[in-house]
C-alpha cells in the first residue's frame, strides 16, 4: 500500500491480471479531522520519498476485509463503516507511512504547506507560474520550497505543471478527438511542436497516434465484453 497527502500528477499501468486472478485496488480518502483525532504522538517529520510502497500487515488487511464485507450488508454501513474508517486510519498511523498522515492533520506541517501550492497549480495549470509566488504561498524560502515540493511529489513545480498539462491534453484528445494543436493551446502550451515533442516523450507516441491507439483499445475492449 502507499499513502500520499499531496494530489499527484501521475499515470499508472496495470501489467498483470487475468479472469482467474483479477486486479483489485482499493482507494480510501482520509479525512484530516479524523486523523487529527487519532494522533497520539508527535514524532518528528521525516523526508520520505513521495511514492513508497509497504507490505500490508495482517491487522490492516483484516480491517479492509471487514470494510468490504459491509457491501453485502448495506444496512450495517451507517453504524460500522465510521468505526472501520477510524480503525484503518489508526493502523495507517501506526505503520511506516504514518508521518504523512500526521502532517496531513497538521495545518502547519510542510505537506499541508505544499498542498497549497499544488492546489494553486491544479487550478491554474494552463497559466504561467511564478515559483517564487508559490514559495510565498507555502510560507517557505525558494530553496526550502523546491526541496519539500520535490520530496512530496517527486518532481519540480514546473515538471508538476507540465505533467498536469499533458494528462489533461490526453484526456481532451480521447474525449473529443480533433486538432492536437488546439488542444496544446488549450492546456497552456504556446508551441504546438513543443507540445508534440513533450507528449511523445511522456506517452511514447505523438498526440494523434496515441489518442487513436487508446480509442482503438477502448473499442476492442467493448467488443470483447459484448
Give an account of the 3D structure:
- The protein is an all-alpha fold.
- Among the domains are: 32-102, no CATH class; 162-225, Arc Repressor Mutant, subunit A, CATH 1.10.10.
- The protein has helices at 32-38, 58-69, 77-94, 98-105, 110-123, 131-137, 142-153, 157-175, 180-186, 192-203, 207-225.
- Helix 1 (32-38) packs across helix 4 (98-105), helix 2 packs antiparallel against helix 3 and helix 9 packs across helix 10.
- It is globular.
- Residues 44-48 and 219-226 have low confidence and may be disordered.
Sheet/helix structural class = mainly alpha
State the helix count: 11
Seen as an oligomer or otherwise, the chain set is single chain
Rounded to the nearest angstrom, the radius of gyration is 21 Å
Compressed to H and E, one letter per element, the order equals HHHHHHHHHHH
Cα shape: globular
What does the largest sheet look like?
A: none
Kindly state the number of beta strands: 0
Determine the N-to-C terminus distance: 34 Å
Low-pLDDT stretches are: 44-48, 219-226
User: Percentage of helical residues?
Assistant: 55-70%
Beta fraction? under 5%
Mean pLDDT: 84
Offer a quick outline of the entry.
By secondary structure, this protein is mostly helical. Among the domains are: 32-102, no CATH class; 162-225, Arc Repressor Mutant, subunit A (Orthogonal Bundle), CATH 1.10.10.
